[in-house]
Amino acid sequence: MAEPRRAAFVFIFITLILDVLALGIIIPVLPKLVEEFMGGNTANAAQIYGVFGMAWALMQFLFSPFLGALSDRFGRRPIILISCFGLGFDYLLMALAPTLAWLFIGRVISGITAASFSTAGAYIADVTLPEKRAATFGMMGAAWGIGFIVGPAMGGVLGDIDSRLPFWVAGILALINAAYGFFVLPESLPEEKRCQFSWRRANPVGSLKLLRSHPELASLASISFLQHIAHYVLPSTFVLYVGYRYGWNAKVTGLTLAAVGICNVIVQAVLVKKAVALIGERKMLMVALVAGCAGYVIYGLAPGPLWFWAGIPIFAFMGFIGPALQGLMTRRVSASEQGQLQGANSCMMGIAGTFSPLLFTQIFAWFISEAAFLHLPGAPFFLAAVMMVIGLIIVLKAIPPVQGP
């Protein structure tokens, strides 16, 4: 990688760490804050929190392709910076939220500003050679892991002091990061590679048409969609699930999420590059889906904390799925379509998120309620495991081995 490319990658790597750190800080406390507004009723809080997740994802669905198309026209830098500043101010709004309605508004704004993650993905595609993208996206996944090591642990400790304190810290971190980027972030997309802005490309339905431009791209997109659906079981139900089933407080929850982050960093920063060279992106994808299925089943069955923690290193191999999918998908579009592709990917995540949080929280609420025919708190995780099995079948049927690197 040339020196300018390396410098750009380092900045984006740091940017994602700080953004995810800010996001991770609030994870252990946001569901509990909703629970406080609901008078301590876990089942009702799970239902309301599902609506929060649905609204956040709906904003991702609407704005990710829009921001991706804007970045293809005006460059990545302005989109990333505007979103970073907006995210910082949004956290401060949530820190001051006096009612559940204000907290909900904050989550809506957060969904809009967090849509810039797709632009960061396009930035990486701009500055990375095609054959190195899987490994590079693995490092970006490691940035997420580092953020989730420190963020939830900090959020758990700060949340024990005051449930609003993590929001203040997250807002300050996001604004510092945005200010830093204002002075040092270079543009990655030269003028000659930009394309005209089009509402056809910028709207969610139009952006998804790109995914039908190649048969295997459509299959990969289907796997990505299933993975996004399954993933929502964690942000939607994890905090409430472990609190209900194991009695964990914010500190234990945050430290557990930090352990998840450590395992994720090891997989993405150390193992992805080696796995690409050894088995290729297609087999990496298969390993990820099998590990995800096993991890979800362990989480759902775990009778106590030790069994739950035992599933973390197995589930960590899900970290292969993002780099493998990105590596396979970015090869199949042109340089001027990378922003649209990343927007379309985020759009799919938004579609999944418009119903998945509500789906999983409603399943969780039902299976812990008195009306349930079977008391099964782990039911949402079992549904996520089924999604992984379907994804594996698609790989075997629709992605030929010869298409691997």
From TrEMBL:
The chain crosses the membrane at residues 7-27, 47-67, 79-98, 104-125, 137-159, 165-185, 217-234, 254-272, 284-301, 307-325, 346-368, 380-399. InterPro entries: MFS, MFS_dom, MFS_trans_sf, Sugar_transporter_CS, Tet-R_TetA/multi-R_MdtG-like. It is found in: Membrane. It is a multi-pass membrane protein. The keyword Transport applies. Belongs to the major facilitator superfamily. TCR/Tet family. Keywords: Membrane, Transmembrane, Transmembrane helix, Transport. PROSITE patterns: MFS, SUGAR_TRANSPORT_1. The keyword Plastid does not apply. This is DHA1 family tetracycline resistance protein-like MFS transporter. CDD domains: MFS_TetA. Its main location: membrane. Residues 8-403 form the Major facilitator superfamily (MFS) profile domain. GO terms for molecular function: transmembrane transporter activity. It holds the Pfam family MFS_1. GO terms for cellular component: membrane. It comes from the Bacteria. Resistance to tetracycline by an active tetracycline efflux. This is an energy-dependent process that decreases the accumulation of the antibiotic in whole cells. This protein functions as a metal-tetracycline/H(+) antiporter.
